[in-house]
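Proteins fold. Shown next:

***
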Amino acid sequence: MTTKIHMLADALGRPLRFIITGGQVHDATQTSALLEGQAASAVIADKAYDSNGFREQIAVMNAEAVIPSKRNRKVFIPHDQALYKDRNRIERCFNRLKHFRRFATRYDRRTIHFTGFIYLAAVMIWSA
């Protein structure tokens, strides 16, 4: 069975929260759980997260949604392009985690063991 890691990172590209699901689960289904209880001035995400529900959740947080509109959206919603350039920090966070061979190759058969290692790797990234 394949797995997928959904992650929330801070402005410095350090992991804050993650959820492991089956590989067929879309990223946007986990957004409310990842943002629950978080405070931010802006939430940066890619086009896959462009939904009215997610934008409403960000508005409830009193944060700015920095999400490009999907191509099929009837009314395009503008976003701060200068701030959107910082979205690469989540990609860098994943790349730092992939330096750990155990993370990159997913040797663990049980999800609980893999989850434990992600916590350990996240602590090592935070302390670096």
About this structure: The chain has a mean pLDDT of 90. The chain has one domain: 3-127. Residues 46 and 80 are 12 Å apart (CA to CA). DSSP finds six helices and four strands in the chain.
